[in-house]
Structure formats: C-alpha cells, structure tokens
Amino acid sequence: LKPFWLREAWLGAVAAPPGATMATLAFLSSSAAGANNAHRTPPPLRGSFAAGAGALGGAKLSGGFSASSAAAGIVSVSLGAALARRRRRTQPIATIGREAKALPRNQCNKIANLAWGGAGFQQPQHSGHRSFGFLRKLLGRRAEGSAPAPKEKPGWQGAELKPLAISVGIGLLIRFLIPIPAGLTPQAWSTLALFVATVAGIVTGPLPPPGVAFCALSVGFLSGTLTFAEGISAFTDEVLWLVLLAFFFTKGFSKTGLGDRIALNLVKAVGNTTLGLAYGLNLAEGALACGMPSSAARAAGVFYPLVLSVAKASGSDPANGTERKTGAFLIQSSFQATGNSSSLWLYGAAQNLLALRLAAQCGYVIPSPFISWLKASCVPALVAMALTPLLVFWVMPPEVKETPEAPKEAERKLKEMGPMSRDEAILGATVAGMLVLWAGSTAFGIPSVTTAILGLSTLLVTGTLKWDD
Predict the structure, then answer these.
(1) Nearest to residue 59, comparing CAs of 25, 99, 105?
(2) 3-class DSSP state of 273
(3) Backbone torsions φ then ψ of 19, nearest 5 degrees
(4) Cα distance between residue 302 and residue 131, in whole Å
(5) What is the DSSP letter of 39?
(6) Which of the residues 112, 136, 147, 239 has the least number of beta carbons within 10 Å of its own beta carbon?
(7) Hey, which of 100-104, 139-143, 218-222, 235-239 has the most confident mean pLDDT?
(8) How far apart are CA 163 and CA 25, in angstroms?
(9) Helix axes 405-417, 304-313, angle to 10 degrees
(10) DSSP 3-state assignment of 402?
(11) How many CB atoms lie within 10 A of CB 350?
C-alpha cells in the first residue's frame, strides 16, 4: 500500500460533505483501488484517482449511491485534481472550490471516469455532467462563504542581487585591489571606481538606470568621495537642462501628432516611387530634427511605424519573405537619415548638446552655438542626406521601384487624423518661435536654455502639454 495514495484518499474522505461516507471505509477502499489501478494511471492523476476512488468506494460500501455520496466522490475527485495540478498535498477547501469551479467540463468528466472505474462503479450515462454541475454549485457556494485562502508571501522585490553584486564587486576591485597610479589622489581613484561601478550597474541592471545613479550618488556622499554640492552640480548645468527640456518637446510632437502630419504630407507629395519615398522621409527627418531633439523618438516613434505601414501596403513583409520588395531599402534609408538629420541641427540629438558642454568644460565657449553648429554641419549633413538614398538604392536595390500605394496610404492616414488641431498649431508656432530665438540668441541676448523654458511654459499655459505629460 502506497502512503501517497492513502494520504490522497484520506483527504478525499475528509473533504466529503458530513454524513456522506465513512472515513474508515473510504480509507480502506482507496488502498485497494489505488494499488490495483496505479499501474495504468498517468502519474499526475494518481492522487485524484485514489482520492475519488476512496470516497466513491466508501459510499458504495456504506450503503448505496445517493446524492450525498455522489457529492462526496466528486468533491474528492476535484480535491485530488486540484492537488495534482498544483503539486501540493494540502489546501484550504475554499481554494479547492475555486480550482474545481474553474476546471473545464471535458477535464472534469475525464477525471470522473477514472475515479468511477477505480471504485468499481459502472459510469451512469448522465451522471458525469450532473455530478459536476452539482459540484460547481456546491463548491462555488463553499468557496464564496469560506475565508479567503492565505496569500503567499511575495518574494524579494528589491534590486536584482546578482547584477548588484557584480557592479559593487567591480567598484571594490578597482578601488582596493588595483594599486593607485602615481600622480592620482585616493579621492580621484575612488571617483573612478564609483564611476565604473555605476556604468556596470546601468549595463547589468540591478535597478533602473536612475535608481543605479541615485544609489551611486549616496555611496559617493557616504564615502566622502563627493560633496553634496559636487554630487548635484550637474542639475544646475544649462546644457543638461536643455537635454531634459528637449525630451519634453519630443513628448509634445508625439502627443499632438504634428510629427506624423509633417511626415505623411511629405510622403503624399513625393512618395510615388521608392526612391522618391526615401527622399521624402529624409526631408521629413530633417524638418523634424530642428525641434524634436530625440533621434530615438523620431526614428522609433514617427518614421518606423510609417515605413512599416507603407512597406506592408506594397506587399513587403519579412514574415512572408518579401522584405526585398521595398521594406529593406526603406528601413535602411530611414535609419541612415536619422543619423544625418541628427548631425544637421544642434538640437537634432541630445548628444550634440553634451558635446557642446564638453567643449565648454575644455574652455571652448562657442558664441551663438545654434548658428555656429549649423554653419559647420550643414555641408556634410546636407550632402549625406542627398547621397545616402542613392547609395542605399545601389547597395540594396528594391525589387519594386514604383510605390503608388504610398501616397494613398499617407492620404488615408491624414484623413483619419482630420484637420490640424489647435494643439498642433500651437506646438508648431512655439517651435518656430524658439528656432528664431535660438538662431538670434546673441542678438537678442536670450540664452538658449531660457528660450527652451519659455517654450515649455507656453505649451503648459495653453494646455498643449499637461504637467502629468
């Protein structure tokens, strides 16, 4: 006699409604039924098989088959099924009830047939459905009336421990095991160790990057590597505020749909051929980059969905092996256009502003940076924008040269968008005004960061952007 089957049968017997069967007879009957049929029962169902056989066998021996004994058998079958599915040996009856109530009907009948046969019964023609209908109602009521099942204790919710150990270990290794090079102070070496550990944490990800940086800041304060003023000095840097404000304006473009409207109008105008479509996307990238300073947001938020839609409309889909029709060419051309437009404008990408900050730290203060950047970058950037589609067209020639569906798709989407909204008009006018102030910052005597703050304030006051945005 297998102890596992006996334990399951005992649970089946005690889970039966009071007076339905006798625990002792159920216990003894399950021993024979379980031992006799275990060799032909799938392992996951042996527990439910023995439990159901025990209660039904006990009902048979204790005097016939009644509604209460049927309930006892079906309850015990459900108990065994829930235990088998959960791989557990004991559960509150409320949990068992919810489990049984959620079992599919075909699974219920399959388990019932096994239990009936194991107990020596011949399965009645209609009992399975009725028994389980009764079971669902019975256990549903018992589950609803019972105390809720105890909640499992949640696991560790903090930082991922392995990445955290790696990051901290790298910092400790640099600080304490590698000798400090000649000419460096211990504080400088500690700063390097803290910096490398922070980068390692951002890469391995024990916490989101801001959390990693904040924890590193606290370590710097605690160890005396950084003073509080040094730790927060970046938050007073004008260029980093420009980077932050740039992302707010990017949110405005995505929220209002102005970026999509500009791109769709250009596709509608010049998108009859695959090459013309690529140039249209280039122009749209260049136009948006002057006021949408996140290259990732432009590429992934505006142009990739547009290119994907146009490519699929022309029958180009990697899932069908037809990516060479137009999709491969358009995706590659659009990807290269993002780099070109990012280098054209000072505010075309956040890293441009960081480059400006690095120059200032080295003593190179550039007057009127917007105009100076445009003068230096316009020739290489515009040449690249003109030649890149041709180069991609030669390296990755599309199989389909004509794309009459592209303007139609753009027109359809423009109709869905409707006329230009109030928020789009306000955002467009605000960005245009900011470009004028940025271009004439020296003449107007208005710093670039002041212009950006003024522009964001305008969007907040007019309701184009909400503070929650």
Answers:
(1) 25
(2) strand
(3) 80, 0
(4) 58
(5) G
(6) 147
(7) 218-222
(8) 57
(9) 130
(10) strand
(11) 21
DSSP annotation of 177: I
**Which amino acid, one-letter code, is at 70?**
A
Spatial CB neighbours of 113, under 8 Å, sequence gap ≥ 6: 123, 128
Distance, CA of 436 to chain centre = 39
- What is the Cα–Cα distance from 415 to 51, expressed in whole angstroms? 65
Cα–Cα distance, 50 to 236 (Å, whole number): 72
d(CA 55, CA 22): 8
pLDDT per residue over 89-108, tens digit each?
A: 444 444 444 444 455 555 54
- How many H helices and E strands in the chain? 23, 0
Bridge-partner residues for 273, per DSSP? Answer: 402
Q: What gap in Å lies between CA 355 and CA 243, rounded to an integer?
A: 11
d(CA 376, CA 387): 19
CB atoms within 10 A of CB 446: 14
Can you tell me the distance from the alpha carbon of 314 to that of 308, in angstroms, rounded to the nearest whole number?
A: 10
Amino acid at 211: G
Q: What is the pLDDT of residue 21?
A: 41
- Distance, in Å, from the CA atom of 455 to the CA atom of 464, rounded to the nearest integer, reads 11
Is 363's pLDDT higher than 80? yes
Give the C-alpha separation, 12 to 79, whole Å. Answer: 7
Q: What is the 3-state secondary structure (H, E, C) of 337-376?
A: HHHHHHHHCHHHCHHHHHHHHHHHHCCCCCCCHHHHHHHH
The band of 422, judged by pLDDT with boundaries at 50, 70 and 90, is very high
pLDDT at residue 393, rounded to an integer: 93
- What DSSP state is assigned to residue 467? S
CA separation for the pair 233, 25 (Å, rounded):
80
Evaluate whether 316 touches 323 at the Cβ level (below 8 Å): yes
Go through 316-331 and write b for each residue having 16 or more CB atoms within 10 A of its CB, e for each that does not: beeeeebbebbbbbbb
Lowest mean pLDDT among 73-82, 180-189, 271-280: 73-82
Cα separation, 448 vs 161, whole angstroms: 43
Torsion, Cα of 124, 125, 128, 129 (10° steps)? -150
